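[step 3/7] inverse_fold.run input=structure_tokens len=156
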């Protein structure tokens, strides 16, 4: 689907700037000027953007912050399953957004239980009736995640 599209919109939800840059760079290399990338670093900013825009693709980290740091707004707190909340927001929009989970942790917290990344796609479908295109483990000094994203997107 994405390979045959002239232009599409992608949402990246990631609170680590180094990872964000790596994801943006990799997607830009894959799709060149056909991809328009929007970036969010927190659940609050992702929720606000999803209310005003629709996306064809979303790359989502599961552990994100509650909101962006702002003077007088209180400290953002980490949400180990904040990415799951982003998936719920996407599902509530009714748009057909393809979602890929990309996390640096070996497990994803689902209903307070650690689920290995390899089983998370199935678990999310069974528990919440939400389909994700794939779940990938991101390791900083290993480019395997890039191959896995390419493989997932190539099959869509």
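[step 3/7] decode complete -> sequence:
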């Amino acid at each position: 689907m994405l390979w045959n599209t002239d232009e599409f919109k992608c949402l990246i939800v990631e609170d680590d700037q180094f990872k964000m840059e790596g994801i943006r760079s990799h997607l830009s290399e894959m799709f060149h000027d056909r991809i328009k990338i929007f970036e969010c670093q927190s659940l609050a900013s992702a929720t606000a953007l999803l209310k005003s825009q629709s996306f064809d693709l979303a790359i989502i980290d599961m552990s994100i912050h509650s909101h962006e740091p702002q003077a007088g707004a209180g400290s953002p707190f980490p949400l180990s399953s904040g990415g799951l909340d982003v998936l719920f927001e996407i599902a509530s929009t009714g748009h057909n957004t393809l979602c890929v989970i990309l996390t640096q942790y070996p497990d994803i917290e689902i209903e307070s239980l650690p689920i290995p990344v390899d089983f998370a796609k199935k678990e999310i479908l069974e528990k919440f009736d939400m389909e994700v295109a794939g779940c990938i483990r991101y390791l900083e000094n290993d480019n395997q995640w890039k191959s896995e994203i390419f493989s997932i997107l190539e099959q869509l």
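[step 4/7] annotate
DSSP finds five helices and nine strands in the chain.
The first strand starts at residue 8 and ends at 13.
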